[in-house]
Amino acid sequence: MENKLIAFIEDTKRSVDDKTWFTFDRLTFETGKATLKPESQEQLQNIAEILKAYPKVTLKLGGYADNMGDPQSNLKLSQQRAETVMADLVKLGVEAGRLKAEGYGQEHPVADNSTEEDRAKNRWIELRATSKSGPLLKRPSPLWCDQTSFSDELAPSIASKSEQDQPSVFRLSSVIRHRLY
User: Of 43, 6, 45, 9, which is closest to residue 27 (Cα–Cα)?
Assistant: First the structure.
């Protein structure tokens, strides 16, 4: 998701709209709660570093839930989860004024909710840019992230190596610098 967000931010031909969302693919919450599991921190740190690198970008975070339970409770839970992600990004150094959170409850399911696997698909957080401008203004601090998060376009020097030679992680800041320098 991070590579797609960076590409969108840097693409001067694509304007901000209310239809372009980026889905977090490594955020997980405790069941029935707005508490993030520890494995979610890596992706939150990545997004915080991207936002620090692009200080004019603002985001809206959307929270979603499956259809188990009361619709009003699901709406409240999805709002709390979006707010939790927002609060964690603020703790990581992103200005609160650059973020908004909204819960959508069980609206917009991506699966039919008939199995636990499908219900899990319907519990997600996504974001969209509400404003963007300009190139990288601040070099991000080093940050480790999973290489599978980035496309060949964003990391050609890494992608050109054979699979055996590729490190299991690389620095997000290196990828951003590679594109700009």
Answer: 43
Q: Domain of residue 148: give its range.
A: 2-180
Closest CA relative to residue 107, chosen from 124, 91, 94: 124
The pLDDT tens digits of the residues spanning 1-21 come to 999 999 999 999 999 999 999
Q: Are 59 and 51 in contact (CB under 8 A)?
A: yes
Enter the tokens of residue 83.
Answer: 């707010």
Which CATH number do you get for residue 65? 3.30.1330.60
Count structural domains, the chain: 1
What is the DSSP secondary-structure string of 128-179?
A: EEEE--SS--SPPPP-EEEGGGS-TTT-HHHHTS-TTTS-SEEEHHHHHHHH
In the sheet that holds 99-103, the strands lie side by side as 22-23, 125-131, 58-63, 99-103
pTM, two decimal places = 0.75
Characterize the bridge pairing of strands 99-103 and 169-171.
unpaired
Q: Which amino acid is at 93?
A: G
